Amino acid sequence: MRLAKYLAAAGVASRRKSEQIIAMGRVEVNGAVITVPQHRVETGDLVTVDGREVRLEQKCYLLLDKPAGFLSTVSDPHGRPTVLDLVGRSPTRLYPVGRLDQDTTGLLLLTNDGELAYRLTHPRFGVKKRYQAWVKGIPAPAVLHRMARGVLLEEGMTAPAKVRLLRQGRGRALLEIVLIEGRKRQVKRICAACGHPVERLRRTGFAFLTAEGLESGAFRPLSGAEVRRLYRLVGLPLACLS
Ligand code: URA
């Protein structure tokens, strides 16, 4: 297995970040510093990052229904509660796949499977994230089309999305928005750019996963069948599933 993949599989960081860690000269294989992410790791090799041994861990996949008020980060310098406080201590280093804002509720996957996490979040793999957003005002059909076609944000156009009006009343509307991107505050910025600020946001779907049977703040492990289905969805060989 290539070194960057090995580090991602071991839960050190995403594959991209692992490549940076390798390029920085922080990784040794059998005592020699390796700066090439493509270096092949063989069974029995001793891999260290900053002098600490890194082993392939048992992979773990948790699906959480995130309540409002929790950060989707591993730790917070200001001591605010994070999603890891909800799932408790784990023998492996779990991290969230993508992000949800502190006030956003809904589905968040936590894993130590760096390669799968990378593919689930990169727009190239087209994995759908489904949101329900209560917005101010009732967007006209032309505005819904604009949101769906793509909106110019400061860093460029958003990818096409699916947008539907689910409910309306009392000067508010409930929209369903399906994205394949995960830019920072993307739903809120799309809606605000179209004149309909988001009042409440929930992620209701992540790939084929839904929050069915999960209460707010609760989590469950993915089944083996669900993990294999995610692997197939992003084109990862099942042989990578250790
Ligand atoms: N889009 C947002 O604006 N916020 C989120 O938390 C997720 C998607």
Top keywords for this entry?
28% strand; alpha+beta; four-stranded antiparallel beta sheet; Alpha-Beta Plaits; elongated; Structural Genomics Hypothetical 15.5 Kd Protein In mrcA-pckA Intergenic Region, Chain A; 7 helices; 242 residues; nine-stranded mixed beta sheet; binds uracil
At CATH level 3, the topology of the largest domain is Alpha-Beta Plaits
Number of domains: 3
Indicate the percent of residues in helices: 10-25%
Order of helices and strands: HHEEEEEHEEHEHEEEEHEEEH
Mean pLDDT: 93
**Can you tell me the CATH class of the largest domain?**
Alpha Beta
Distance between the termini: 12 Å
Strand count, sense and barrel status of the largest sheet are: 9 strands, mixed
**What's the CATH architecture of the largest domain?**
2-Layer Sandwich
The CATH homologous superfamily of the largest domain is called Pseudouridine synthase I, catalytic domain, N-terminal subdomain
Bound molecules: uracil
Shape: elongated
Question: What structural class results from the helix and strand content?
Answer: alpha+beta
Radius of gyration: 20 Å
